[in-house]
């Protein structure tokens, strides 16, 4: 390190320092929320409007296709959307999982949502039909013949005993499909297996890094709205159920600003070093 | 369109039997001998992974593409005397990879140097357990080169950054668009999307696989023409192309 | 085993099933039943269900493999490895016993999952943020024109993804919408088309027996023949 100028050091800041400052910036707004403004983007508005426009009696399929690692990002979005659906009269919500952890994560979401506070009854207003292996094979099978693919809910109770499942046999009986996933296989698979074949209305919420890759489907009209889990704060604002998402928005803002500062420091240092050498 | 592509590919395969098509340079693949040579000079192993691929999912083509490169790299490593470590995510891939690597060592005349228990490592079928195990291999064994070709998910960044930190030279390739930016930012060499499918043909000079790449390219030309016609038609108010494609 | 059993028969099976599935996707082949479903429809439904069963079976297969692999390490007392393998197998047994006897939806299983696997999974996933930070700090440097453009675009996208900044600088939204909606999306479309064509060509090679990787090890003689 001796003989190194300040610009050398700023150009090669050790990872430990970068991570340490980042950690502090993560923690402070979680402990002391700053209440920074959260604008509503057009895709989140579209998502909200689509659900608002659902008439009573509509049936919604939700795929809990994310893993435990994605729960901090997608969980708040899933919770806010469920609360929105439960607030509307007469909407039936059928959940399934193409992720093996989906049922545990659905339980976590239900603990946070507390459906009873919305007078939602399991088996009447909402249900979970379990984890179905095979990703696209599962999607295709459920779309073609749900009853042949699974005859029980995720507890193992027969679907025929639940009034919510009356008249629901396949993709054509659903008015809206929603997918939360950390894997592109699910988000793109639903386009191939349900949207292309049955024309089902479809919205998906994915990790922020996946959004650019999903945008072509939105532009082509195959997905109504693609949002990222990081926009959960916006959804919570619209639905008026502030929770983890709004809190995360402060963290996202500050950490992004910090990364911008890091990049600028690195570039200024490199430029000054080059200027000094020449 | 699908039938047309089928015809192109079958035509390409037949034509390639008479004359091998020429490929543009793929810097990443040309650098493979350099990467193996670096590992030999530094007396450190080479790490290879084909990511989270399974032969029964939609990402199977990427896994197969990765295995094609594995065979080539295994032969290079056998010739140079470099220890190659292949990290396995899906158990079903293990026997195939073991056979490919064993064949490579036999071809190099060094079958006794291949130790499957040490060189073909089944780590875990869980994404982050697998990712942590690969990071552990990187930290403990400090490979001089890291090759990642196949379907990768969130662990791509973990791998790329960890191997970069220990000073490995890296080649990455995936057709999963979500992860290409991460590899592009960190890795020394990159294969984007269909370049990984061409990798097997590029390295092996096999007429059949080379022919399919040629057929694919004809399919791409047709797709480009249709896009151009579609844009022009839509601009002038006609939906003939979109109707034709049934969209 | 003869070449017919090891190579020809599997390829014929792959070819026939692929043709049936593709036909069902694109066509309605007679005979059609009263519900308007082609005979291929019921065949495909069965195949899809078999596929689900096979995938579920492969999960168990993975667990068995795990046992074999780590048992070897324990029995050989592999240095720096055997105790980790032992702990892994103990945890697998605990999860399996609780899952089977109390059910995967029981409070005990949920507690175990939340306290261990979920916490670890979320932690490792979150570490991505740190890796991305150091990666971006090193990579977004101006060295030439292309890297300069890369830097500017990267900074704009970072700024737009900070929610509060778009409130104070609404122009960020329009600029980044153009970048992601027009430039990035076009590039992604190209990558997707290329990737799809590559997958199609591999499918055709597999169906016509020219791609035999999935069959495992074949002799030179077996590799020479092909179907179609």
What do these coordinates show?
The complex is a heterotrimer of chains A (278), B (247) and C (228). Chain A is α/β, with parallel strands linked by helices and 278 residues long. Helix content of chain A is 51%, strand content 12%. Chain A has 11 helices and 6 strands. In chain A, α4 (71-87) packs parallel to α10 and α10 (232-239) runs antiparallel to α11. A 6-stranded parallel sheet of chain B has the order 3-2-1-4-5-6, sandwiched between helices. In chain B, α4 (60-80) links the parallel β1 (46-49) and β2 (84-88). With 228 residues, chain C is an all-alpha fold. Chain C has 8 helices and no strands. The chains are: A alpha/beta (278), B alpha/beta (247), C mainly alpha (228). Chains in contact: A-B, A-C, B-C. Chains A and C meet through α2, α5, α6, α9 and α11 of A and α2, α4, α5, α6 and α7 of C.
Task: Give keywords.
heterotrimer; B: about 250 residues; alpha/beta; Rossmann fold; six-stranded parallel β-sheet; 12 helices; C: about 230 residues; mainly alpha; 8 helices; about 80% helix; about 0% strand; extended
Q: Specify the helix fraction band of chain B.
A: 55-70%
Domain tally of chain B: 2
Mean pLDDT of chain C: 83
General shape of chain C: extended
Q: Counting H and I runs of at least 4 residues, what is the number of helices of chain B?
A: 12
Q: Assembly type of the shown chains?
A: heterotrimer
Report the radius of gyration of chain C as a whole number of Å. Answer: 27 Å
Strand segment tally of chain B:
6
> SSE order of chain C in H/E notation?
HHHHHHHH
Number of strands of chain C: 0
